Amino acid sequence: MKSGLLVVAIILIAVGVVSLAYQGITYTTREKVLEVGPIKATAEKEKTIPLPPILGGLALAGGVVLTTVTDVVGFFAFLGLAALWLV
Question: How far apart, in whole angstroms, are the C-alpha atoms of residue 44 and residue 42?
Answer without folding.
Answer: 7
